[in-house]
Amino acid sequence: MVERETALLKKIDINVAESEKRSGKNTVNMQETYTVYLIEIRWVVERGGLPVGDSPWRRYSEFELLRTYLLVTYPFVVIPPLPEKRAEFVWHKLSADNLDPDFVERRRLGLENFLIRVASHSVLSKDKIFYQFLTEEKGWREAVLETGFQDKADSRLKSLSATLRVKNPDKSFTDLKQYSDELNSAISHLLRVRAKVADRMYGVYKVHGNYGRIFSEWSAIEKEMGDGLQSAGHHMDTHSASVDDILEEEEHYADQLKEYLFYTDALRSVCRKHELIQYELEMAVLDLASKKQQREELTTGAVRVFSLKGMSSKLFGQESPEQRESRLAALQQSIQASEDAVLDKNQECREFMRMSWEEVKRFKEQKDRELREALISYAIMQISMCKKVGDNMGTATCDPHHVTRTM
Fold it and tell me: Which residues belong to any copy of the PX domain (predicted)?
């Protein structure tokens, strides 16, 4: 469903071709089993001087590192999410083991989708670290760490402090947070309901399998009704077995919903970054106002509020004119620097809002289009399934040798 909007995606096809289970020692020298994924790119046009590169194997943790780098480097972008690390919203037949072959295969598809989404983005697709991730087996981790992005990352405590202490939050970003929360709640509810329905559906279909076994055993001891009972048992078994393929196809649609569930965290990340910039702007404005007040007090000699400097003047006498002029000059320089800082931070805030709202608009259009397509496809699949089940059961009922006809 990803459109080939960027120059990079017009030049190459990206595939996470296969997965492989490996064993090795982790950072604390303990043996572990993990999965790696093979990234292959195929050039569809001339490379234009770009290196051919390797077909690297990547662990899930390396995909996480890449996404964290993109989050820090491009805080105004709604960064595409990774597929789930461990299965969520599972029903009882679905394994929650992250090494389960079916789960690994769904994750492989999700990782491929992540790479294609990044490559389709007009800004992210031009990042050199991303291209190295696609093409260089060795040296990529060192290259991404050398960018120093970890030093630029905002701590959770700092972001939380900004969220709690910002005095004038922008209404548009407040509304975006609410939109994100509502989208998260709606999709979570839909996935929970779907998991419950899958459980019940699986149980109902397997009951038919029990009936199929009973009819087959019954046919062995009946002469006149034997053929009809055996036919009915066969159709019951076929009906029971079909649920596995149905629910496997449903899981594909559930994964599309989960992607947008995880997208909500990317929206919150944009909001948190804006709150931090807004908070820093407010602190810069307060600092400038404080310095201007100090200049006024120093110029007029009137102290509006209690201060240590005011008490010192009373205890030890007034400053000499030369000292006051020196302090005024230093304070004026500090005020000028603070005014420049306020202007820069204000410009940063406006630029962040402009770029982030372009991103949010693009995301909403993408979300509306893709979820509509996915839900329509899901409805068509359900209709097709019901018709197929009806045709199968109709065949069993209309069989002239069916038990109901015989009896």
Answer: 15-141
pLDDT confidence band for 405 (50 / 70 / 90) = very low
Residue 6 CA to residue 358 CA, distance in Å, equals 16
187 vs 295: CA distance, rounded Å: 56
Where residue 388 falls (left for φ over 0; alpha for ψ -120 to 50; beta otherwise) is alpha
Output the CA torsion sign for 106, 109, 115, 120.
Answer: negative
**Cα 62 to Cα 35: distance, rounded to the nearest angstrom:** 12
**Model confidence pLDDT, tens digit, residues 115-141:** 999 999 999 999 999 999 999 988 899
126, containing H or E segment: none
Nearest to residue 213, comparing CAs of 194, 197, 234, 193?
234
Give the burial class of 225: count Cβ atoms within 10 A of its Cβ; 0-12 exposed, 13-18 middle, 19 or more buried: buried
Share of the chain above pLDDT 70, in %: 82
Starting at the edge strand that comes first in sequence, how are the strands of the sheet with 57-59 ordered? 12-25, 31-43, 57-59
Cβ-Cβ contacts under 8 Å for 290 (sequence gap 6 or more)? none
Which are the contacts of 221, defined by CB distance < 8 A and separation ≥ 6? none
Contact at 8 Å (CB) between 292 and 321? no
Give the CA distances from residue 177 to residues 45, 79, 182, in Å, rounded to whole numbers and listed in that order.
42, 16, 9
Q: Quick check: helix, strand or coil at residue 14?
A: strand
Backbone phi and psi for residue 5, each to the nearest 5 degrees, phi listed first? -90, -25
Cα-based distances in Å from 378 to 90, 251, 323, 368, 374: 18, 10, 79, 15, 6
User: Which DSSP letter does residue 40 get?
Assistant: E
At 403, is the pLDDT very low, low, confident or very high (cuts 50, 70, 90)? very low
Phi, psi of 12 (to 5 degrees): -135, 155
